[in-house]
Design goal:
heterodimer; A: alpha/beta; Transcription Regulator spoIIAA; 4 helices; 5 strands; B: Beta-Lactamase; Beta-Lactamase; Phosphatase 2c, domain 1
């Protein structure tokens, strides 16, 4: 089993580190993890250790970003360009700009 | 035997670590030790004359007569007569239970107040004597408040026990009561699993003692023959672990019938190995009481004393035994009630889970069903695989692993449709790598298709155990008295045995899985029927039966649905526009099935209208994006639109997050470069820029969905490279090109739709 969402609560924002393949089978796990975070906390979805994302995952990101914007909550996405397989999918779909994907987890 | 709940069962392995524990214990003659403990006296007499057949060596001092004179004769005058008188009139033809109900008989021999305890066995009457103690002078029978007699305590206890509302409360209460009653430094209740491993589930201890609560022990700690003895003999006592056994005379047994069976004797001497173990542990006195449900040893109440010898008098022990017997009955009732409650709870979890799956939209994942599915069989992960749709919750496996594990579990030759293991690594050594998150799995088939199943997983068992500190550093402690063993060494044995294993699945889990599988199977069948007509209608709308004939171009297409869904998220369009132009479009909506198809239909109709009305493809796509954001806010879709002038090959194309168009021209095959906007639905108001290009005569413009190139474990660029190389090796003719690309690139078992649309100027 390669998929895992690790929640790092040690910084101002809760960082959800997504390890493994994020697809139709595993996106619900990420969804559940994010839904478990207090609604008043900022969230960073860190895709640095993610090895694959499919369209279900991308659709979820868009939904997540949209809901967060509506709720006035900060949700950031992180994916460095050297995680190329994932970065390229985000690039192709125009999600790097739309989601404001950052290369690293900032403070 | 490290935890030593039993006070008399040897475990050589715990002491020297060399002997095979099973063999060593099986060989130990615990029923016929040929000796008793020295705090009492034993006489085995034959009724009705009370002829002494055997006696403990110390009986000569008590009865004031040499042993040779005692044996083979009725109990002698003097002290012996006192005992005989006490028994007189009680025995006769009384059944065994009735005479044991008389215990203890008070006798005074040589000025000493003794308790005489009698039982029958091996055709003999056993009379065991031990000093009586004034209940008010010792620690015993002095409960809270100071002056309560043991019987008052017992009465209070018997009122307290039934008030417990759960098994754990009941066991806590029982442990407390036995501790209060008997005054041992440590009292713990130890429960057996079906495999006879054990766990300390309740503990009451003096301050300063290391807690043993939560520790677990392997089955070998209490071997089968000891368990058998404990099932009939409810209480064992060792008042001091420092004793020297008193031999029975004759030692060889009675009348050549072999050594005397002391199974029922309270004074039975225990294995020297066990005593050594107790001493090593610092245990000065030990007692254990059985908890037996339906004739099976359910658990033990193990009592240890550290501060010196400790001998609760017979009445107190009898009270402790009565508590254990009462608790056994209450536990049986409570467990039965719990099982009934659990069945009801599982039934409602199952119905809720099936209802939630039935109502589920794909993007909800397992949604509300997930927790219910996990709770149904106490699993930590679950995968629901219904053909091309897979839902996962908790610590679920990757789909590929889940498929493999389910196949292995369900292919058991018996075709029961359900299979489970608590040891995946044993099934296939590769699966050892799934631990610790996944060590055991339970699979049930849904219907009779191999790609429809539910698979639950459980983690490695030892990870679930509450650790009372890190046991690895506390195996042995140096003390002034020398090396001391700790029960934790036994815990390590247990951990080793359960390594890579999960908590086992019980038959009720398998039954639940089967019921859920049947429920889901009905659901799948019903849904397939309901969807078949709708699907067929949608398919006609979405997928043209043939491409329209458009003047000036030759075209071909291939569409292969992914997974087992007849309609996926791909769509394409080919239509002629005013001024002799033609438009080609391709799109891919995230997801599969009816939901994706419905989105597809809306986008396709929208694009047609905009292409006919707007100036160019970039405006059409911008409008389509606004439509998507407006009516389908939760969906995203990629789309590529190209407008071609067949007369001169002029081309304008625009992309919303879609893979780039390919121009196939043999060795000169190339991708069209240009700007790309975001996928539809990502950003309202997004702008799309068109790129102009030219399609030369003989060149084929190929639009395709990412299902043609996408593979896990590689980047999209690798897939693009593969596609261009494939195209370079194929004739630049639409029909042959489509066929060749699909044959070469569309892998069997792909999850995604594959669509290819190829156009060439005629």
């Amino acid at each position: 089993m390669n998929f895992e969402v690790e929640l790092d609560d040690s910084t101002a924002a809760v960082v959800a580190r997504v390890r493994g393949e994020l697809d139709i089978a595993t996106t619900p796990t990420l969804r559940a993890a994010v839904e478990g975070i207090d609604a008043d906390r900022s969230v960073v979805i860190d895709l640095s250790p993610t090895t694959f994302i499919d369209s279900t995952a991308c659709r979820y990101f868009v939904q997540l970003a949209r809901r967060a914007a509506e709720a006035g909550r900060s949700i950031d996405f992180v994916c460095p360009a050297d995680n190329y397989e994932v970065w390229r999918v985000l690039d192709l779909l125009g999600l790097l700009d739309a989601l404001g994907v950052q290369p690293t987890v900032g403070e | 035997m490290s935890a030593s709940p039993g006070a008399g069962d040897p475990d050589p392995a715990a002491v020297d670590g060399e002997a095979d524990p099973l063999e060593g214990c099986a060989a130990e003659p615990i029923r016929v030790p040929g000796a008793i403990q020295p705090h009492g006296w034993l006489l085995a007499v034959r009724e009705p004359e009370l002829v002494v057949v055997a006696a403990s060596d110390n009986a000569s001092a008590l009865l004031d007569a040499p042993l040779p004179e005692l044996l083979g004769r009725p109990l002698p005058a003097g002290p012996g007569a006192v005992i005989a008188d006490a028994l007189a009139g009680l025995l006769g033809g009384s059944p065994d239970e009735d005479i044991e109900a008389l215990n203890p008989l008070a006798v005074t021999v040589g000025g000493r107040a003794l308790d005489a305890v009698i039982h029958r066995g091996s055709g003999l009457l056993f009379v065991e004597l031990e000093p009586a103690e004034d209940q008010r002078s010792g620690n015993f029978g002095v409960g809270v408040g100071g002056a309560l007699g043991w019987y008052q305590q017992l009465r209070a206890a018997l009122h307290r026990l039934p008030r417990a509302s759960s098994v754990s409360e009941l066991v806590d209460e029982l442990t407390d009561l036995v501790a209060e009653l008997t005054g041992f430094d440590r009292v713990m209740t130890y429960r057996f699993t079906p495999e006879w491993d054990g766990e300390v589930i309740a503990e009451r201890k003096a301050p300063g003692l290391e807690p043993f609560l939560g520790l677990r022990y392997p089955a070998t700690d209490i071997p089968a023959q000891a368990r058998a003895l404990y099932t009939t003999n409810w209480l064992r006592l060792i008042p001091t672990s420092e004793y020297t056994p008193v031999p029975l005379v004759p030692s060889g047994g009675t009348d050549g019938e072999g050594p005397l069976d002391l199974s029922g004797a309270m004074l039975r001497s225990v294995s020297p190995v066990h005593l050594e173990y107790l001493r090593n542990m610092g245990v000065a006195a030990s007692m254990s009481v059985s908890v037996v449900i339906d004739g099976r040893l359910w658990g033990l109440i193990a009592c240890h004393h550290y501060t010196g010898p400790h001998r609760p008098p017979y009445r107190v022990r009898a009270a402790a035994e009565m508590l254990a017997r009462t608790a056994s009955i209450l536990l049986a009732q409570r467990e039965m009630a719990d099982r009934a409650e659990r069945r009801a709870e599982r039934g409602s979890l199952r119905s809720r889970a099936i209802a939630a799956i039935a109502a589920r939209r794909e993007e909800d994942g397992t949604g509300a069903a997930g927790e219910d599915l996990l709770g149904l069989v106490d699993a930590s992960g679950v995968t629901v695989r219904l053909g091309g749709t897979a839902l996962a919750e908790g610590a679920a496996l990757d789909l590929a692993d889940a498929d493999a594990v389910a196949a292995a579990l369900l292919d058991d030759g018996e075709q029961r449709g359900v299979g489970a293991t608590d040891h995946l690594a044993q099934l296939d050594p590769r699966w050892a790598g799934l631990a610790p998150e996944v060590a055991g799995a339970l699979a049930v088939r849904v219907g009779d298709s191999p790609d429809r199943y539910v698979l639950w997983t459980r983690p490695e068992w030892q990870r679930e155990v509450a650790w009372a500190g890190d046991p690895r550093h506390q195996k042995a402690q140096r003390s002034p008295a020398g090396l001391r063993l700790s029960p934790r060494s036994s815990f390590e044995v247990w951990v080793e045995r359960v390594g890579l294993r999960s908590r086992p699945w019980d038959p009720a889990d398998l039954d639940e899985a089967l019921d859920l599988g049947r429920g889901l199977s009905d659901l799948v069948l019903r849904r397939a029927f309901e969807q078949s007509e709708v699907t067929a209608a949608l398919q006609r709308t979405l997928l043209l039966e043939g491409l329209p004939a458009i003047r000036g171009i030759e075209s071909a297409m291939r569409y292969l649905p992914g997974g087992d869904q007849p309609v996926g998220g791909d769509w394409f369009e080919l239509l002629s526009l005013p001024d002799g132009l033609c438009a080609l479009a391709i799109g891919d909506v995230a997801g599969h099935g009816l939901m994706a198809s419905a989105v597809t239909a809306q986008l396709r109709q929208g694009l047609r209208a905009y292409l006919l009305r707007e100036e160019g493809p970039e405006q059409a796509l911008a409008r389509l994006n606004d439509l998507a954001n407006w009516v389908l806010p939760d969906d995203i879709a990629t789309t590529l639109v190209a407008v071609l002038d067949p007369a001169d090959g002029r081309l304008r194309w625009v992309s919303a997050g879609h893979v780039p168009p390919l121009v196939a021209a043999g060795a000169g095959s190339r991708y069209l470069g240009g700007s790309r906007g975001p996928a539809l639905g990502v950003r309202a108001g997004a702008r799309f820029d068109a790129t102009a290009d030219r399609l030369a005569p003989g060149e084929v413009l190929v639009l395709y969905s990412d299902g043609l190139i996408e593979r896990r474990g590689e980047s999209i660029d690798d897939g693009l490279r593969r596609l261009r190389e494939a195209a370079a090796g194929l004739p630049a003719e639409p029909e042959a090109l489509c066929q060749g690309l699909v044959e070469r690139l569309a892998a069997d078992g792909r999850p995604d739709d594959v669509t290819v649309l190829a156009v060439r100027r005629a």
